[in-house]
Amino acid sequence: MLQHLTIRHYAIIDQLELNFSSGLTALTGETGAGKSILLGALGLVLGDRADSDSVKQGHDHAEINAEFDISKLDHVSTWLVQQELNIDDECILRRRVSADGRSRAFINGTPVNLQLIRELAEMLIDIHGQHEHQSIMKPFTQRQLLDDYAGHRPLLESVSDLYVKTKLVEEQLNHLTRSSQDRSSRIDLLRFQTQELDTLDLQQDEYAQLETQHAKLANAEKIITATQQALDGLTDNDEFNIQSELARLHMTLSDAAEADEALSAICDVLQEALVNIEEGSNELRHYSDNIDIDQSQLEEVEQRMQSILDIARKHHVEPAALTELHQQLHDELNDIDHADERLEQLQTEHAELLKRYKTAAAKLSKSRRKFAADLSKQISSAMQTLGMKGGKFEIDVSANEDDAVTAYGTDTILFNVTANAGQGVKALSRVASGGELARISLAIQMITAEQSRIPTLIFDEVDSGVGGGIAEIVGQHLRELGNTNQVMCITHLPQVAAQSHQHLCVQKQSDGKQTTTQVVMLDETRRIEEIARMLSGVEITRQSLDNAEDMIKRAQTT
Fold it and tell me: How many domains does the chain have?
């Protein structure tokens, strides 16, 4: 939910910091005080278009920060992780607008484009009464809302799984069909390439082994010289060699060890060294005796390596990758040779999957129509209590155009409504009145509150055109909705404001030179005074104060 909102140098707001809680928050104030400005600032941080008029006169930029608690919103956390924008259980949106109209947007301190911030905002806040940020106007949300209400998750998963499988087989079919169109030329090329690689008969890791062998053959003389020099120094030089000198020193120390046993351990080490020198010399002599400077073998290795390199270059791969390529070409040739058989197999598989998909989609459609009728009836009933007598809500579930299949089934779901008796229903997106649209949205939210995915709902103009008892009912419904969602309502009606758990008042101030807007959190006393003002106008009477106090008490006990 929205926890904190900070506004600096926006329109006629100099600096404003607001903390929000759960439940219903009423936002009131005299006409022209700036309630719409506050909503505009919030819209700006949610991704609305910015212009230079957003910046308060005399300042070079405006800045709005909105902090959200997303600890219970797993889908939002997952989205942030996917975008690499996550920091714990907080989500901070920031928008900075310069006096020249340019703006920058940030999510958790990282610069992002507006499209990304709008995508996130749609998961956090829904504004009812104006078309911006109102997700319920979108066909995707309308479908999602009906499916959530009906508990269609298992059915949707089944349809989606079959859709993905069907599409994968369809892609294989398309690929095989395209391949068959130039099958003849492709077969000729593949046969030539595989025969060439068959002839080469390259073994696994052969090229690496050839490189090792080549290094040995090419450096045979250098290796022989090195081994002879080592043998000469170790044992073979008659004038001086390490073995003889070490044996002499060992004998000298052995004689001394008879006088001091402490030298015995050192003598043992030297004895072991003599043994190692002898063994190493024997192995080195054996190695040297078997080195053969065979120029013809070197040429054979070089020719073999060159043949491998030539074919590797032809296929634009490293020599080590040729064996894998050889297998791939063989597999492709085999697939094409058996294309007709494979094509028939895929066609059968595709037909079976499509049949299963349509069965699952038909089951989903049947359930959607059933729950659409139930949900329509409940929302229509709720509309009657919200000042729309004779109003009607209908959810139309119809087949997709051209019977198109999707991961969500084969249905197009459309919310239709009329707010007045005797008028035909039309798409929810075509409802002109902001007040009616807000109240219809409230009716929808009332019925589907438990399935709501958006934690914060803002209602603007929800009380437009209503009063008296209906206004009180609107307020009661908003308060009830506040039990499951964070609800904010911009209202002119005391009956609505009295139902709130938290009350903010927008006040405009002027010193004759400059006008500013402030938002004040009202305590119990000031709240009674504000509702009394809304009841009686400029002059607040004792009776209006008593009425205001009574309205608040009644709201708290219902």
Answer: 1
Do the Cβ atoms of 343 and 177 come closer than 8 Å? Answer: yes
CA distances from 500 to 18, 495, 552, 557 (A): 16, 10, 9, 12
Integer angstrom CA distances of residue 286 from 144, 233, 243, 292:
81, 16, 18, 12
* Residue 25 included in any domain: no
* % of residues, the chain, pLDDT over 90: 40
Pairing of strands 90-98, 61-69: antiparallel
201 vs 342: which has the higher pLDDT: 201
Q: Is residue 317 part of a domain?
A: yes
Range of the domain at 300: 186-337
Where residue 217 falls among pLDDT bands split at 50, 70, 90?
confident
Domain-located, residue 318: yes
Residue 88: name the closest of 109, 102, 105, 106 by CA. 109
Per DSSP, the residues of 111-124 read EE-HHHHHHHHTTT
Q: Give a yes or no: residue 353 inside a domain.
A: no
Q: pTM for the complete prediction?
A: 0.64
State how far the alpha carbon of 178 is from the alpha carbons of 93, 339, 353, 480, in Å: 48, 11, 22, 60
Q: How far apart are CA 140 and CA 462, in angstroms?
A: 24
Instruction: Give the model confidence (pLDDT) of 66-125 as tens digits.
Output: 999 998 888 899 999 999 888 777 899 999 999 888 899 999 999 999 999 999 998 999
